[in-house]
Design a protein that fits this description.
single chain; 6-stranded mixed beta sheet; 4-stranded antiparallel beta sheet
Length: 255
């Protein structure tokens, strides 16, 4: 069995009296791709926000790369090697594609406080390499993001994640608003990550996509993990039964 890259134990998040996430025990091994599925409000995005420190957990532990972590925020999680595509894309509308890809990790010709000069040529070259590697087609990378379609914006966000992926990629509904062609692009990026051995957590409502792309499926219902199933040992009807509550929590659901 491969080493564990991510593990949560008893991960819990309460918003006042609302228990959005309760006692989530989760394991992801090196090189493994795992889907997180469930109905709206099941706790999927809340789970991702705790791992990436967009929010601070109420209780429980998170271990990453074999040690317990308590990230102060998303930047700390990213610096540790977790790249994330959120449903809200976190793109700067007035900046072009290279500036967005390198947002927070800019390349400089030299650094001298307020007199620092960006190496725009190098960032543009690296951007073109990243887009070529991920097969994302942007007609003009010098255009501000605000002038691009929703699908192009999503693909820029995903290309940024794939280009800088180091230890773990998390994607939260990456194709929810995309057309058929753009969805196929994103799925090819995910396959490329698999080939590179980069582990991934994929939050998705699309069961066809889930069965095509991942090794294991974790089902959330009402803030709890109710099943963890190898994709070759289950089917869509089985997963839907856990999502809707026809089936209760399965034995061994947390490993």
């Amino acid at each position: 069995m491969a080493n564990v890259i991510l593990e949560t134990r008893g991960l819990t998040k309460h918003y006042a009296g609302v228990h959005a996430l309760e006692d989530a025990n989760f394991i992801l091994h090196e090189g493994e791709h795992v889907a997180v599925v469930g109905d709206n409000g099941a706790g999927k995005s809340t789970f991702v926000r705790q791992i990436t420190a967009v929010e601070q957990r109420t209780s429980g532990t998170i271990s990453f790369g074999g040690r317990e972590v308590h990230f102060s925020g998303p930047l700390a999680a990213r610096e540790a090697g977790i790249e994330t595509v959120f449903q809200t894309l976190a793109l700067a509308d007035d900046l072009d594609v290279p500036s967005n890809l390198f947002l927070g990790r800019e390349m400089f010709k030299f650094r001298l406080g307020p007199f620092s000069i960006l190496d725009r040529k190098a960032m543009r070259a690296r951007t073109m390499e990243a887009l070529a590697t991920t097969a994302v087609k942007i007609p003009n990378v010098d255009n501000p993001i605000r002038n691009m379609s929703g699908g192009q914006r999503q693909c820029v966000s995903i290309a940024r994640t794939a280009a800088f992926a180091s230890k773990l990629v998390i994607m939260d509904e990456p194709t929810a608003a995309l057309g058929v062609q753009e969805t196929a692009q994103v799925e090819n990026i995910i396959r490329g990550l698999k080939e590179r051995g980069i582990p991934m957590v994929l939050v998705s409502h699309n069961l066809r996509q889930v069965f095509d792309l991942v090794d294991r499926i974790v089902v959330f219902r009402r803030g709890r993990i109710v099943a963890s199933l190898r994709k070759d040992e289950t089917d869509g009807n089985d997963i839907v039964s856990y999502i809707t509550g026809v089936k209760g929590a399965s034995e061994g659901a947390y490993v």
